[in-house]
Fold these 2 entries.
Entry 1:
Amino acid sequence: MILPVNFAILTALDYFFEVINWLILIRVILSLLRMENMSNPLSRFVIVTTEPILEPFRALQFRSSIGRNLMIDFSPVLAILVIQYLVRPLVFKLVLLLMRYI
């Protein structure tokens, strides 16, 4: 049985992951429009927030033999896929497991 407090925690986690996904998509749009400059406060916030998430995927892409020769940065796509299909379910399962023992 999920208590209201547990439901609130799961909902907050769901919103957190949705915000991260939207920030990554906004970063892609800013990149396509060539508006990735640090003088704009909104752009700076998006870049500073998403860079720690995207950097490992960018490094992984450029270390591979295929990604080194690509002109397109696929790190946002990889990040969203990993967040949606690996990180998010694992975090939810872990939180539900921890709630069972509290």
Note: Helices lie at 4-32, 41-63, 75-101.
Entry 2:
Amino acid sequence: MSGHRNFNELLTKMSPERRARVKAEAENLHREYVLSQIRQQVGLTQTDVAERLGVSQPTYAECERGSNMRIGTLQKIVTALGGELSFHVLIGGRDYNLQMPQPV
């Protein structure tokens, strides 16, 4: 493997500050978020998202608290947040990206 280095070897050559930043960024990539955290990260209020969805703020607030949301509803919320919903499925140690149909 000419020209390739082991990532751990690269880490040892980084400053402690840089290693800490790399670790924090990696942890953030694997972090699980709830809808309210995502909404806050993109700088929107519940009222902002509710207006984009055409529902009341209390109705949207219930969506954020709900534990049994329909996929179509979640897809609309993610779109209102400016994102795209995607799923991945783990079966037998293999990771599959599941393509979602686009809302009509």
Note: Residues 16-29 form the longest helix (14 residues).
